[in-house]
Amino acid sequence: MLTINYLFISMKRNNIFMKTILAGVDALNIEDLSKEKIEEIINDYRKGLPVKEIVKKHKIYLALLYEILRKYNIPLRKTEKQKMPTHKRKKKAIIKKIVKMYRRKMSIYKISKQLGLPTSTVYYILKRQGLKK
Fold first, then answer.
1. What is the reported pTM?
2. Is 2 exposed, middle or buried (0-12, 13-18, 19+ CB in 10 A)?
């Protein structure tokens, strides 16, 4: 059983090694990189170069890039998903507007035209607010 497990692990490592060669990746871990190369990667990240470009330019894996950034305490840039709170605030403001307009006896059609939203969205929001059944 031990030889079978060893053979499987050995094949798995060779597979990873072959994929690495085929992908054109030069380094698998931080130890494979020189200090100058690491500094260059960090500088590119700080300049705002997209992560995909950095990975391609320096021929490293994405996981290795993030490992470098973690090791050298480089703060990660915010992604679009992390910027959602402002979007949620806008969404709440729109919901308040829709409710206010509806309570002033404005039709769903007029609300949708005035706010540039589909009538189905306005209806859905009103339904979620308990104003429509």
1. 0.46
2. exposed
